[in-house]
Amino acid sequence: MHITALDAHVCTKKGMTKMQNPFTYTFGVRPREYIRNEQSEVILQNFSYDDPVEKAYMITGIRGSGKTVMLTEVSNQIGSRQDWIVIDLNPSRDLLQSLGARLYELPFMKRFFIEAKIDLSLFGLGVSIEKGNEIFDIESAIEKMLRAVQKEKKKVLITIDEAGTNKSMQVFCLTFQRLIRENLPVYMILTGLYQNIHHIKNMEGCTFLQRAPFIILQSLDLSAITVCYKRVFGITKEEAVRLSRLTNGYAFAFQVLGKLYFDKADTTSIEDIILEYESELIIYSYNKIWSELSGKDRLVVKGMVKCGAEGTNPVNRQVLMNETGFSSSMMNRYQSRLREKGILGVSSGIERGYYLTLPRFGNFVKDYHMDE
What we know:
single chain; alpha/beta; Rossmann fold; Arc Repressor Mutant, subunit A; 5-stranded parallel β-sheet; 16 helices
């Protein structure tokens, strides 16, 4: 995109005193300049009630769309409430064993088991109780601990970031389903890439997940990015609009461009900032995204690039079919896959067209992958 207002000039942050950079793209860290996704408000509202209707949420989106930051923001807010206990689980570990261990660490839990003479030493939880009632099943142990939580008038939110599709996850979800049938105060938020969350949602026996809210993170509002950039950088509205358009609303791009502009606008031309901006997107996001695409996914993307489909310039569906040699049914399949992955968008209007949603992704493909 040509930025005439900034073209051939060194950018400056007008009237600003030097302060700590409020932008970051460190994984999972909530930046100081953070645009909250409206979908997080829906989750927070649900969990603000004494008896939340929704028991589980599944959040997905392309890499860099803000899934982990959103999860961190929501869990921190809920965890600050006195009647909530937030437990974050590592998806690479045995989830039930981890949940049991974390529940037992709660200040009131050891007292509860000693008074009830329940022995959990078999699981490495607590101490052996003389003449205690041994529990041989971790699921039963978790149920009893959740009843202790219920007795304390508290609720448990379990969070799992980048959820996988292993056996441990299936066992965990089946157990969670049984626990909510027992009306125990347990809730869950999962995040992950679309293909993983879709697989988890359709795991055999996990009916409740098919009815759980399935949230696909949307792009950030460009006007919100404009307001942020104008305020932080002290630039004109027109300059802030042009910068915001460079991000396409991609959450990771918003942070990358913000960080670079904040650090370098005093000494570096906008052209060089944009060049480094593209490089950072490639290194930290686009290389990984490209590696996860199938051969036919890539064929569609390269066909779109050849036809100039990026930003507000979509390619006609029939033109793309001619370019790729795909039949109508095959195009339906792969455009759907790429939409779910957050790479392809569908234009509105009389003629259906497709465009690339990620900022400067077409440049990345054209420069480094067209000859593959």
